[in-house]
Amino acid sequence: MSDDLICVGSIGGAFGVKGDVRIKSFCAQPSDIADYNPLRLDDGRTLNLTLLGPVKNGYSARLSNVSSKEDADALSGQKLFAHRNQLPDLPDDEYYHTDLEGLEVVDTGGVTLGRVKNVQNHGAGDLLEVHGPNLKTAVLLPFTLDAVPTVDLKAGRIISDPPLGLFE
């Protein structure tokens, strides 16, 4: 996927029998996903999304060119992407997850700890999934100001002051 594209949601499958879908929005204000049309799918197709209303864990939505339950089911699991220039500019201390993925993680002494493979959020805040040659398993580094005091996108690195014992 292009660096110009940011994942703003995903399709959970059909909602009803008329081709509507259930979507999960990854936007700070979940309903904003409808403002970023046209959206792009994993497979490169573009479509327009119209929110119909909130449902448990997301929204029901209508997608252009989707008119049957079978068409909607075929889209289950697809991610929805918007072009970066469609999205709002972020304050200095906020980042799109895609911008953090791949960054080198070093400690405050300059020792490389690994690279961010993924950003996870299980409800209690973002966690950076760090992989490295000296790590037996992935490390989940809390993405907090205490544990990650500096993110330098231009240099391609994160300076971390990890909790004691996390990278041992």
Tell me what you see in this structure.
- By secondary structure, the protein is mostly beta strands.
- The protein folds into two domains: 5-86, Elongation Factor Tu (Ef-tu), domain 3, CATH 2.40.30; 97-160, PRC-barrel domain (SH3 type barrels).
- 6% of the residues lie in helices and 41% in strands.
- Strand 10 and strand 11 (139-142) form a beta hairpin.
Average pLDDT, all residues = 91
The largest sheet, given as strand count, sense and whether it forms a barrel, is: 7 strands, antiparallel
CATH class of the largest domain: Mainly Beta
Considering the protein shown, what is the CATH homologous superfamily of the largest domain?
Answer: RimM
Secondary-structure arrangement, i.e. CATH architecture of the largest domain: Beta Barrel
Strand tally:
13
Q: What share of the residues does DSSP label as strand, in percent?
A: 35-45%
Which secondary-structure class do the elements indicate?
Answer: mainly beta
> Helix content range of the residues, please?
under 10%
CATH fold-level name of the largest domain:
Elongation Factor Tu (Ef-tu), domain 3
Q: How many whole angstroms does the radius of gyration measure?
A: 18 Å
In what order do the strands lie side by side in the largest sheet?
4-3-7-1-2-6-5
Number of domains: 2
The number of helices is: 2
What pattern of helices and strands is seen along the backbone? Answer: EEEEEEHEHEEEEEE
Low-confidence stretches: none
- Give the terminus-to-terminus CA distance: 34 Å
Cα shape: elongated
